[in-house]
């Protein structure tokens, strides 16, 4: 029977009310037994290794139930620590049944001790966040207290010092172990739940932690005084193995930490403690019942099949589940259940959501080779060792030896021969059913060859089309080619042409001008250079730009009148432009100028009317007044929208303005200045 004081033990829930706790004095751990039993606590802690289950040699003492109570261990009136008292209720395992059998009947292999009692070594294992402890107790139960169907008594350990707000897991088992260990999880209150919190020194400076929501986010408020330093840790609590830390930070003064709702899972816990020696840590797991946390846990879980017949559920929190074998037809959305070939474990999953969540993994993913055009055969063992085979297809399980209009039925005899000759792979082997995967690639070989040839032909056609378009694509990517032709009136006009060429080069245009090609002009000569550049522009869909000055207009008039250029201007200044007239002007006279030529003159230097009439067959622009239209004609089909053209025109106009002003400025008067009148 348990000791009387233990009948008043409190069952602590997640949010306990204000508690008034019993006070214990002294610093030593002790054990107590129910009347008639004797017990002893071993000195010091030990390493907990439960070991394997062993068969009981006869009647043995085993833990039957765990019970806990919170108490205070006080060193002075206002200096106490929270402590956990644990009672282990004992029972006898392997006791013979029947009115005429006693503890030491002839059927029991265990011989009595000298004092006529049963003896056991009971291990208590405690584990909390970042701490664990293991103690060993010896218990003896007299034979007179052992009766079938009745408890053998209890032993009480007091006490385990625990952290406020922590979660403690307790295991109890015997050494050696004759049954699965008992376990209990205890959520401890924090300072706010204790009536005697003024007696616990750490409660006076303990940081307060509150959890609030802000829309989809969660806010953690750490309420401490200014200048106080605390540590804050977020971790995933695990039922097996150590806790998994996630995030840690040291804080100074009141702080608010924001968590995204997608980070919430039921086992996410928060621990906070003052950054002082031997400080108490407060732990809180506020998301155990949060529907969002359970949804995140399921959506983040992964199911893995492990050969030959096992599975693993990978999740951030411990999560019970149920597994069954199903079959998903090619292109199907749902997995159709098969006979229960996979062991099932029915466990209630506490998911507070109306949404039905399901995880699925295919055998092809890890257990087998990559997906192929195989067929699944289900072998069913019937009475008198009769076996039947059917093929899993979208319409159901079709008998392989039937006249059904399906692929598996048409190839039924061949599939059975493959199965018996060992060409099929066994996926699952149950008591009455076996699942096979039989290859179909050799039967589908001809169809795949035709598809392969058709694909190869299509790829060849696409490759040829790509080659045909390669030149145009490259040209479009680099910009349109533009060849600028001009007559060199003087140095100021050449600077104006250079400024225009530089401004156009900053646009998606590839500009060629004789001012930038002095070496090529010297090597080829003006006529060969002009003809080569014009031919290249025409081949790539480019444009030739004629920049008219008074000298260029005069050369064109002479060519139109006499059929050859004259010597207007200084000798040698018009070689490139004059050399171009023999192939440029025939294009205008024969109607081939549209789309290939653009003409331009500059405001204040030459009016458009001064350009010979035959040369008006191509667009003629006055710059910079008509710069947007001029740039649009140069870029052709690749020209941007009006807004972009206007912006480009403003940039080109700014580049032309200084050179155009110098060209428009009258030359200085060479006559000497008149002497000033003497005063």
UniProtKB/TrEMBL annotation:
Subcellular location: Cell membrane; Membrane
Superkingdom of the source species: Eukaryota
Annotated transmembrane regions: 448-468
SEFIR domain mapped to chain residues: 479-632
Region (Disordered): 657-679
Membrane topology annotation: Single-pass membrane protein; Single-pass type I membrane protein
Main location group: membrane
Signal peptide: 1-20
Composition bias, Pro residues: 665-679
Keywords assigned by UniProt, alphabetized: Cell membrane, Glycoprotein, Inflammatory response, Membrane, Receptor, Signal, Transmembrane, Transmembrane helix
Pfam families registered for this protein in UniProt: IL17_R_N, SEFIR
Record PANTHER family: INTERLEUKIN-17 RECEPTOR, INTERLEUKIN-17 RECEPTOR C
The protein's name in its UniProt record: Interleukin-17 receptor C isoform X9
Organism of this sequence: Erinaceus europaeus (Western European hedgehog)
């Amino acid at each position: 029977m348990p000791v009387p004081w233990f009948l008043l033990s409190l069952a602590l829930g997640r949010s306990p009310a204000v508690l008034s706790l019993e006070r214990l004095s002294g610093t030593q751990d002790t054990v107590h037994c129910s009347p008639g039993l004797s017990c002893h606590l071993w000195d010091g802690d030990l390493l907990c290794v439960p070991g394997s289950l062993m068969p009981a040699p006869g009647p043995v003492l085993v833990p039957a139930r765990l019970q806990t109570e919170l108490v205070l261990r006080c060193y002075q009136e206002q200096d106490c620590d929270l402590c956990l008292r644990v009672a282990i209720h004992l029972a006898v395992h392997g006791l013979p049944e029947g009115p005429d059998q006693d503890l030491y009947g002839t059927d029991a292999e265990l011989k009595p001790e000298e004092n006529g009692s049963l003896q056991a070594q009971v291990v208590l294992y405690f584990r909390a966040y970042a701490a664990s402890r293991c103690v060993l107790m010896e218990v003896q139960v007299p034979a007179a207290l052992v009766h079938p169907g009745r408890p053998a008594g209890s032993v009480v350990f007091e006490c385990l010092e625990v952290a406020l707000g922590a979660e403690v897991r307790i295991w109890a088992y015997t050494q050696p172990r004759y049954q699965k260990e008992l376990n209990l999880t205890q959520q401890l209150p924090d300072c706010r739940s204790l009536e005697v919190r003024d007696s616990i020194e750490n409660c006076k400076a303990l940081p307060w932690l509150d959890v609030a929501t802000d829309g989809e986010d969660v806010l953690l408020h750490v309420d401490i005084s200014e200048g106080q330093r605390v540590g804050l840790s977020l971790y995933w609590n695990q039922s097996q193995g150590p806790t998994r830390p996630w995030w840690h930070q040291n804080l100074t003064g009141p702080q608010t930490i924001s968590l995204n709702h997608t980070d919430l899972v039921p086992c996410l816990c928060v621990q906070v403690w003052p950054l002082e020696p031997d400080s108490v840590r407060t732990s809180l797991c506020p998301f155990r019942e949060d529907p969002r946390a359970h949804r995140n846990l399921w959506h983040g879980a992964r199911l893995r099949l492990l050969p030959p017949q096992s599975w693993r559920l990978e999740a951030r929190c411990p999560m019970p589940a149920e597994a069954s074998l199903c079959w998903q037809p090619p292109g199907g959305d749902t997995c159709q259940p098969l006979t229960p070939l996979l062991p099932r474990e029915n466990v209630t999953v506490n998911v507070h959501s109306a949404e039905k969540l399901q995880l699925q993994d295919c055998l092809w993913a890890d257990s087998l080779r990559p997906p192929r055009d195989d067929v699944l055969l289900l072998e069913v063992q019937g009475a008198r060792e009769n076996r039947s085979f059917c093929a899993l297809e979208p319409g159901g399980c079709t008998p392989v030896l039937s006249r059904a209009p399906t692929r598996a039925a048409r190839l039924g005899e061949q599939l059975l021969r493959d199965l018996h000759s060992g060409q099929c792979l066994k996926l699952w082997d149950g008591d009455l059913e076996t699942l096979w995967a039989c290859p179909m690639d050799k039967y589908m070989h001809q169809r795949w060859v035709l598809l392969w040839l058709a694909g190869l032909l299509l790829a060849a056609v696409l490759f040829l089309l790509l080659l045909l378009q390669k030149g145009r694509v490259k040209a479009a990517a680099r910009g349109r080619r533009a060849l600028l032709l001009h007559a060199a009136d003087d140095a100021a006009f050449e600077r104006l042409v250079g400024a225009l060429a530089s401004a156009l080069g900053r646009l998606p245009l590839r500009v060629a001008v004789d001012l930038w090609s002095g070496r090529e002009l010297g090597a080829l000569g003006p006529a060969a250079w002009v003809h080569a550049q014009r031919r290249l522009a025409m081949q790539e869909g480019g444009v030739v730009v004629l920049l008219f000055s008074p000298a260029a207009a005069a050369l064109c008039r002479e060519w139109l009148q006499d059929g050859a250029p004259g010597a207007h201007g200084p000798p040698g200044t018009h070689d490139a432009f004059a050399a171009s007239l023999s192939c440029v002007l025939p294009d205008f006279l024969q109607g081939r100028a549209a789309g290939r030529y653009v003409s331009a003159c500059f405001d204040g230097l030459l009016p458009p009317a001064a350009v010979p009439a035959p040369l008006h067959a191509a667009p003629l622009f006055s710059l910079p007044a008509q710069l947007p239209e001029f740039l649009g004609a140069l870029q052709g089909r690749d020209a941007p929208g009006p807004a972009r053209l206007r912006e480009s025109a403003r940039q080109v106009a700014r580049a032309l303005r200084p050179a155009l002003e110098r060209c428009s400025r009258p030359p200085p008067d060479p006559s000497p200045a008149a002497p000033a009148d003497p005063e």
